């Protein structure tokens, strides 16, 4: 399958990941449609059906999600579970009713067992309980995978399920109540740099291991998967490179040019001790791997933040 010339509907197309997916597909010559939630509320089956009937897509990429960092998951677990579960069920049902060539479902590494050790392999997806810090979001994504299998079996729906690692980059959520760790640290260190603060306080111990994928690389991976991957088995999308949160904080501070002290608030939660994906299957099936290093991606993100959020032209000495 080639995306060029295809009619593609991207749910969540104005969100963080979605807008990058839209740009990637348009660059490849696809006709891309990204309905806004104020036009079609995907938690309602009637609106979901109306969106598909209006666009008549060949392909759907379901990237819409109610998602945020650990703090957001603690505040709004019911909303996260409800919204994601309803959208998942409605997208699957509408696609089965209308009939499309392919459905790409964007999952999350949060669906993996919380206490799993080593790099996470696709076979481990349903092998244990979720981490409590992201249980409601993770369970909604596990349910999405189970739905993908069920609709493929009963209705022949050609769907693929992609397990995405931690993303960062331009247009991420930078609100402290909603942001993931990279966005939170980028904002915190830039604000500390601008205010000449002597220290920055970060959540937890800094010891958990995570991997971080630049969002534009992820958008490219999704496009490649749409063209090349057709199996029911889940597929990890990531870098396979783990960094501790402390290493991430140090690198972010260096990129920003912040020279103060980093202090860890150990009263705040760490989340799962380790979440790094095994990307062997991704490399084999897609013949693809990300090109942006963590430092390069952080530099691009920090530059974007200064220009877009603060409206300032960053000085060269700030970006190292």
Which characteristics define this entry?
single chain, 320 residues, alpha/beta, Rossmann fold, UDP-galactose 4-epimerase, domain 1, 2 domains, 6-stranded parallel beta sheet, 13 strands
Summarize the structure.
By secondary structure, this protein is an alpha/beta fold. The chain has ten helices and 13 strands. The protein has two domains: 7-167 and 213-237, Rossmann fold; 181-209 and 241-275 and 292-318, UDP-galactose 4-epimerase, domain 1.
The number of helical runs is 10
Number of separate domains? 2
Instruction: Give the overall form.
Output: globular
In percent, how helical is the residue content? 40-55%
Overall pLDDT metric: 94
Q: What CATH architecture of the largest domain do you see? A: 3-Layer(aba) Sandwich
CATH class of the largest domain: Alpha Beta
Distance between the first and last residues' Cα: 41 Å
Radius of gyration: 19 Å
Amount of beta strand: 15-25%
User: CATH-wise, what's the superfamily of the largest domain?
Assistant: NAD(P)-binding Rossmann-like Domain
Poorly predicted parts = none
Order of helices and strands: EHEHEHHEHEEHEEEHEEHEEHH
| Largest sheet composition | 6 strands, parallel
Secondary-structure-based class equals alpha/beta
């Amino acid at each position: 399958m080639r995306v060029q010339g295809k009619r593609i509907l991207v749910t969540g197309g104005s969100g963080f990941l979605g807008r990058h997916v839209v740009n990637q597909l348009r660059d490849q010559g696809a006709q891309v449609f990204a309905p806004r939630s104020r036009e079609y509320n995907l938690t309602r089956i009637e609106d979901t059906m109306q969106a598909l009937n209006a666009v008549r897509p060949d392909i759907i990429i379901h990237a819409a999600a109610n998602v945020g960092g650990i703090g957001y998951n603690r505040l709004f677990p019911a909303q996260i579970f409800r919204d994601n579960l309803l959208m998942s069920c409605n997208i699957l049902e509408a696609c089965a009713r209308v009939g499309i060539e392919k459905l790409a479902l964007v999952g999350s590494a949060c669906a993996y067992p919380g206490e799993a050790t080593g790099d996470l392999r696709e076979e481990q997806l349903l092998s244990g309980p979720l981490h409590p810090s992201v249980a409601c979001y993770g369970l909604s994504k596990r349910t999405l995978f189970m739905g993908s299998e069920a609709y493929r079996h009963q209705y022949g729906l050609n769907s693929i399920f992609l397990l995405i690692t931690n993303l960062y980059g331009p247009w991420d959520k930078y609100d402290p109540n909603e942001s993931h760790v990279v966005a939170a640290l980028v904002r915190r260190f830039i604000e500390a740099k601008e205010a000449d603060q002597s220290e920055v306080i970060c959540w937890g111990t800094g010891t958990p291991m995570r991997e971080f994928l630049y969002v534009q690389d992820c958008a490219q991976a999704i496009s490649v998967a749409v063209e090349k991957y057709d199996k029911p088995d889940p597929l990890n999308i990531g870098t396979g490179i783990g960094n501790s949160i402390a290493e991430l904080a140090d690198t972010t501070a260096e990129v920003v040019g912040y020279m103060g002290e980093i202090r860890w608030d150990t009263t705040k939660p760490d989340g799962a001790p380790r979440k790094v994906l095994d990307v062997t299957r991704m490399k084999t099936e897609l013949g693809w791997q990300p090109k942006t290093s963590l430092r390069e991606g952080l530099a691009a993100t920090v530059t974007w933040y200064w220009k877009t959020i603060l409206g300032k032209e960053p000085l060269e000495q700030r970006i190292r």
